[in-house]
From TrEMBL, chains A, B:
Belongs to the isocitrate and isopropylmalate dehydrogenases family. LeuB type 2 subfamily. NAD(+) binds at residues 292-304. Binds 1 Mg(2+) or Mn(2+) ion per subunit. This is 3-isopropylmalate dehydrogenase. The keyword NAD applies.
Amino acid sequence: MTSSTPVTSAKLAVIPGDGIGPEVTAEALKVLEVASPAGIKFEQTRYDLGAERYLATGEVLPESTLEEIRAHDAILLGAVGGKPNDPNLPPGILERGLLLKLRFELDHYVNLRPSKIFPGVVSPLGEHILKGAEVDFVVVREGTEGPYTGNGGALRVGTPAEVATEVSVNTAYGVERVIRDAFARAERRTRKKLTLVHKTNVLVNAGSVWWRLFEAVAAEHPDVTTDYMHIDAAMIHMTTDPARFDVIVTDNLFGDIITDLAAAITGGIGLAASGNVNPDRTAPSMFEPVHGSAPDIAGQQKADPTAAILSASLLLDHLGHPEAAAAIETAVLADLSARTPGQARRTSEVGDAIAARVAG
Amino acid sequence: MTSSTPVTSAKLAVIPGDGIGPEVTAEALKVLEVASPAGIKFEQTRYDLGAERYLATGEVLPESTLEEIRAHDAILLGAVGGKPNDPNLPPGILERGLLLKLRFELDHYVNLRPSKIFPGVVSPLGEHILKGAEVDFVVVREGTEGPYTGNGGALRVGTPAEVATEVSVNTAYGVERVIRDAFARAERRTRKKLTLVHKTNVLVNAGSVWWRLFEAVAAEHPDVTTDYMHIDAAMIHMTTDPARFDVIVTDNLFGDIITDLAAAITGGIGLAASGNVNPDRTAPSMFEPVHGSAPDIAGQQKADPTAAILSASLLLDHLGHPEAAAAIETAVLADLSARTPGQARRTSEVGDAIAARVAG
Ligand SMILES: CC(C)[C@H](C(=O)O)[C@@H](O)C(=O)O
Ligand SMILES: CC(C)[C@H](C(=O)O)[C@@H](O)C(=O)O
């Protein structure tokens, strides 16, 4: 939730990460600096975490580093992840040991993912679907529970008798707070519409607590229109009528899936920003592009920094500077409209162009 | 897997179900009859199961009915499900008590869902994505494990201390057999390509057994090209380059989600057929359209029976009659190409038209 008390000085932890992470983060910081209101001071600390660090030192997220990061006001993250199938990088080690560890430890229970079809951006959906309707919704993905808890295990690994489990944990505590946040967000928007996405017909235990709390909180928000959709049906609605969505609230795994679809249909993951938000501010929130570290194009100034820059906009909004945040978004919109299809700019050129628009 | 021994007489259990189920099933049976090779006899038994039956009698799937159904050679199912949010129909009761019960009891471990963009069908994806490339893939969804086992529970329901869990169960036994089936299918296709879809970076226990067995079986099939994709990344590839897929193998829940997306991008769930296949033939396989019972348009002859008719084609293929199956598909293709956009036909008119093409 956006704070009402603007922060005038902020300690910013920067985790550029791997692959294209450092390149896009540099542009995000460039724009952040230009966009920040006069007088606001960002004190930056850089943390080298990710695949490179792990491969070099065996460290993923030392406890002392986590505690240092915790003492910041916000985190800007680029992207983490090594080369696909690197045998020295066990699957999940960075995801569970770093990314998810931060989300869980810092209680980022609102994973916020806005989706818009920006002007000038080509959606994979045809004009017969889009019909000029405005696609502008936000997914409030639960960030600290569900199948992401790392709860589960395996027995007789590597034998024909192996059994492996994954446990989705859903608490009334965790579900209610994210639903409340989603209702509050819906209430602040023009259409005031909130859709719960789940799979209540199969995952009946988890579905039941989500459904009941959704209904209960809905009763307190008569001005918000609600509906419900199974995750599979949501695939269809998202690709055949994306304009129908305003705010979506859903669990951690469904949110992971639907936000990538949302990114795809709004023109690609190169534009998708996200905030891992701790609305209670008991720990710093973290802002990151949805895309990965794209090691294949790393270091070549080929990556589009727009998602990272939009993540910096979410960061400013979170720190109580909605005008500065909006200025970044406006600059990005203008930049996107001015892009010439097929004409590739360097990562830093995109950052410069957007920074110039914010400044001027 | 297609049987090599064609069945010449078959006991067919027909479950028309609720809503539009009976209407589309009638057309599927009409076409099945016309398409069946001379000499093949279908002995049909009709089972009234679904929301109506439950609301009238409290029965979902009596044990004796299950045993009767088990004695058949194949099952044709329309659709089950009552009115949305009917307070007399607890969420999941039909899904878990009837549909999934049949899939699990009859060991339908291969949930087969072919996806094609048929000629004349409008995909929501734009021409800039499709570029005339052929979209023709099949999803092999695991049908008897994963988060669908009904394993889980809830504690302190309705209190602020509620905890609800869902356990995804993955066994080497269950994972290996579906992966083997998928490799065999890939091997029979022109492109011979198999993509594993999972979320190995987060669901590390389940992901590990899927990944290891996929690699192990791949080693036995050097002629099959393999790749791997996280479920979230699959959302992007499916909407920006669906032609890249040939065969996809995935778990029960990811399969549920991705097949609805596949149905959407190939022109809608009105065309999506599926087979719940027991490749070992220890029990009858079940064929059903992917769509639901659509109570809002039930009894009005408005439903498109094409998905049900294509499910009958899968049934014939499963019973060892690939030519008869292909004849139905050819007739459907011709019918689709001849459809006039905006001109609605009655359910029975579509069935008649396709039956006439098969016959003549
Ligand atoms: C990298 C991975 C752990 C992560 C997730 O699954 O949440 C990513 O896909 C995302 O959406 O931020
Ligand atoms: C109705 C429901 C239980 C079912 C599923 O989730 O498998 C349906 O969505 C399907 O895909 O066949």
